[in-house]
């Protein structure tokens, strides 16, 4: 049987854009026709070496290319809305890095346009494709622990982003915890209805100066009655700490962190082993591959993507509720968000 | 050098009273002179076999025995106040099972009497003497993780107590989570200043009918700026789940649960290992021994006990704040408790 | 129902004799009437504090005491033969520390006497009562891994014994690996038929000077076709390393070492945890209790002991084969031992 | 700086040839110009999809292609000698899958030719590039455990190869354990001087009928005084079991197996987790990438390969000694092999 090939374009060649490019380059069923970036000249040699023919500054050149069927949107968040709407209207399938936008209103608008255009739209919640979290979710769905009672997510970055990034990041809840809010819905298989968030500034003064926090504990209440908690820190000196646990009537599901190696050195001082994998590029290396593979398969088979625009919107709504809860020091229900949605 | 022997009496021969009796019986530096219980006849053979000579119904007989230097108070919580006050006035050192009482006012009164009597007073927060939690606390104190940022405690019982117990237990926060509230102060080495608690009824209807909850997530804010979270469940089918973790600027400290054995069976189905130890008597077997040893040593050496009345009071105050927070669905600061303290 | 009480005597109050005394003192169904030791005066205070009434120099006083039903033989190996024979003839049940003797001929003689006397005779292979090894053995017996193919035992002491001990120890195979030879038979549930041993002197010169080795790998062939290997070292600086693994047609069984605590400290340097438990008294603390409990139960119920004289003899025969194999650098079958059995 | 590109050809498109092709296709500094296979037609579509232009039946076409600088020899072992000699004479660098040949004499001849041609020659001992084993080796070299005393390798395949493969495999020692013999030299950093091997037929009758064994324990003595042991089985139903441990005067180094996920399901039945990764393609996925990357780097930088022809020869000599030891049931020294080297 002849294998189907999907022709794609990538918008943005920063860290995450290059990652998607290199992953797609290794898939036998994908051809990356073009990539666009403001600094097109600087990425030329790299892009050619992985077989991309069209290297341009203006994303419009990719959007207008009729051979290109799908677009990976890897440019800054403030460019997402315009690109997605344009791509949707031109009938391209869309993979969009998270968050869709910084405004729930704008995200809703985008989803409307995408819906009318009837194209595939996948949001980049890469952790859904991590082998461990995927397995936990599958086992919850299969009823291995009965009905879920408690969710626990630990999500700690190895080091805080620089001040300039923090300033335009949307804050800890929108930039970092948004992945955990998606993971919460995904693992418990139920919607979040209420949020209580406690935050602290314990790491870098410039984070406080930016009006942001660096440490947080967020309690979630789910529609199915379960309750959950997420703890976040911007600085875990031992590496990227990513754990999840779902506890239910018939048992508990949890997974370990990945260490650099599993080697143990036992001496008269005790037992020593490696730090955790450093950050998301290392830890979720395979998850990014599975995420892109899944998107391509859904395009080729016409099946629903595993992480759609609604998932993106919902995570943003939880982030907004968490932000308001933290600022007001009170529980905030997701319903209360209506009418007061602009974030920036 | 001649070894010192401390003569003790035990009030109450229920599960925990018998445990303390058997542990003390194995210490070369302790003589258990007497034990009192309403059902003195039924425990006679057992008590004789471990060398206790005086087996009585009325605790007063032990309290008036001049040879007895220290009393273990293992009777129901509602008898604590009278016994402790009487023992203190008679100059006996006191070991009291938790909680001291169900009323913060009453606990404060008791502590006043004990203070005036100038006797040793240790509260039975046995987990402080667990080798794992003790080590975490020591390492936090030594600065191994720098200043603490996040505390996480998981504390889940293997099965809920019967309805009759629930009814007079004081509720999940006072009966069960109180151990975790003490552990929180102990591990972070700072006072709790604010509490937010979310609860749920997911396990047994009779718990709800008793006006109690069976599942909870409690967020704590500490005086030193750290934040923490405790998750509780009355029913973990895989055994007694007891974990703690302290995260700070320089690292993370955590410990594993104890399984029945460390045997792994690897087959074509995967890898299987044992359930956790069943409940507190098994899991904290050694901790109970260390707890009693430490009390005896403090008496013999005149050094301060490692878990005193103030610790007992503080844990009760956090429990009260958690209860009010849950009932009112808002954060409650410990200071707000003043003036509104009676619980039952 | 009235509980049965067994009256025992202990011969030898060295490290292991005192251990058995303290353990038995805590059993409600045992009374230690007497203990004998050359240095009876020095142990008097200790013995009284755990309730032993008769503290004598001459073991004969215990053997002739008609109230004493069972004897724990904890004196040096070269005294075993005389004591056991005498005790058996006087109708006492016998618990004997390993090895029974240093001579297979002598051990055989002893077993004859014991058999004729029709008393219980248990050999002190304490590891059979370790919760982990016991569970592995049970699961092998239940067929959880089908027929066994491979056995692996790692057995490493934390530090070598002093020169004076080495000189009269019988050598690594008789003094140390003998426990592993018993464990091999126990876990595989089949007899050893051939042995090949490789040894080395890598640790302390005085061990070599004593004609002994400090490091060994011993390959075993079992009657059921399985093969196995034991690795021994006299010096594991990270603690007492005791592991076992049985691999078969349907799977693998293995267990972990016990660490002092399960606390992990994660820092920018990696993850650190505790050393292993230091040596046999710590690691097999519970196993020694179970071992003695089991012996007492077998006496009280008239059931066969779980580790009898034949087990002691067999382990000695494997040790002898290993020693000859090492000296001759060739495989030695257990059958070849006949006719050439004296060791010292 | 302009990146260097190495042009390679691959001989043989079986499982391992395709793996090397796909890995090299993803390297920005490698161009695969051609691949040869008897079934060239069948691999055409796959080869084109990863960008290989020249797909031929006869390896000679690749060898004569002047643009091709390096050859990956992935054809059956009996074709290695002719191809390697030809490639070497034509000045190509060579990567050769293990074993180099089935005859130590022939391997020696090949190494002579390669040496004269002065080309790079790397042997496919992929495990040297596994992150865990590599780390153990580095730490041994750095002296983290002082001088090595004991080596332990567990190496068990998930299922036996089919009868037709077994017949021409060279036997367990040459086909399977050869990787472990290389690992032994690599981890201990010393040559093997004597071998004792015990084997058994416990799995499939057709293995015995082929004159081969399916289970083995091999004891190794090293030039530096250390001793070691390898246990092999052709059938571990729980997955590909690959462990290594080096014990020395200052400590112990060991690593865990990789499971499919790290998810644990705790229920009233106990704790369950996943099987091990299935076989070498999954377990050593990253190691194969590192192996090829390292070969390309050595070519581009003119530095010595990390696993050369001498390493290939030495592993074969240990395999031969193991085979003879097993057949003769006696220890065989590597020196004894001189004069009696032909295996098939």
From TrEMBL, chains A, B, C, D:
InterPro entries with a match to the protein in the record: Gfo/Idh/MocA-like_OxRdtase_N, GFO_IDH_MocA-like_dom, Myo_inos_IolG, NAD(P)-bd_dom_sf
Gene3D superfamilies tied to this protein: Dihydrodipicolinate Reductase, domain 2, NAD(P)-binding Rossmann-like Domain
UniProt key word Transferase: no
Coiled coil: none
Superkingdom of origin: Bacteria
Keyword field: Oxidoreductase
All residue ranges annotated as the Gfo/Idh/MocA-like oxidoreductase N-terminal domain in the record: 8-125
Record has Cell inner membrane as a keyword: no
Residue ranges of every copy of the GFO/IDH/MocA-like oxidoreductase domain listed in the record: 135-253
Protein family per UniProt: Belongs to the Gfo/Idh/MocA family.
Name recorded for this polypeptide: Inositol 2-dehydrogenase
């Amino acid at each position: 049987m002849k294998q189907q090939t999907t022709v794609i374009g990538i918008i943005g060649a920063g860290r995450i854009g290059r990652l998607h490019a290199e992953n797609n380059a290794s898939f036998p069923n994908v051809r990356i026709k073009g990539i666009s970036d403001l600094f097109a000249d600087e990425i030329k040699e790299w892009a050619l070496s992985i077989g991309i023919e069209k290297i341009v500054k203006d994303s419009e050149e990719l959007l207008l290319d009729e051979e290109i069927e799908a677009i990976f949107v890897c440019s800054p968040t403030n460019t997402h809305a315009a690109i997605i709407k344009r791509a949707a209207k031109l009938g391209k399938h869309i993979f969009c890095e998270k968050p869709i936008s910084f405004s729930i209103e704008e995200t809703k608008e985008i989803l409307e346009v995408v819906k009318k255009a009837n194209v595939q739209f996948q949001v980049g919640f890469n952790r859904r494709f991590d082998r461990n979290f995927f397995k936990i979710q599958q086992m919850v769905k299969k009823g291995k622990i009965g009905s879920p009672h408690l969710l626990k997510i630990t999500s700690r970055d190895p080091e805080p982003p620089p001040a300039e990034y923090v300033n335009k990041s949307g804050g800890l809840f929108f930039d970092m915890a948004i992945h955990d809010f998606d993971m919460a819905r995904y693992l418990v298989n139920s919607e979040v209805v209420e949020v209580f968030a406690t935050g602290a500034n314990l790491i870098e003064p410039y984070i406080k100066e930016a009006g942001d926090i660096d440490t947080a504990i967020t309690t979630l209440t789910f529609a199915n009655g379960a309750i959950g908690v997420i703890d976040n820190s911007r600085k875990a000196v031992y590496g990227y700490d990513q754990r999840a646990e779902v506890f239910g009537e018939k048992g508990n599901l949890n997974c370990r962190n990945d260490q650099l190696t599993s080697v143990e050195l036992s001496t008269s001082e005790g037992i020593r082993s490696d730090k955790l994998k450093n950050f998301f590029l290392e830890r979720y290396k395979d998850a990014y591959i599975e995420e892109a593979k899944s998107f391509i398969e859904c395009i080729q088979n016409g099946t629903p993507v595993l992480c759609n625009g609604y998932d993106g919107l919902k995570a943003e709504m939880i982030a907004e509720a968490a932000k308001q809860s933290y600022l007001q020091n009170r529980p905030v229900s997701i319903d209360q968000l209506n009418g007061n949605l602009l974030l920036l």
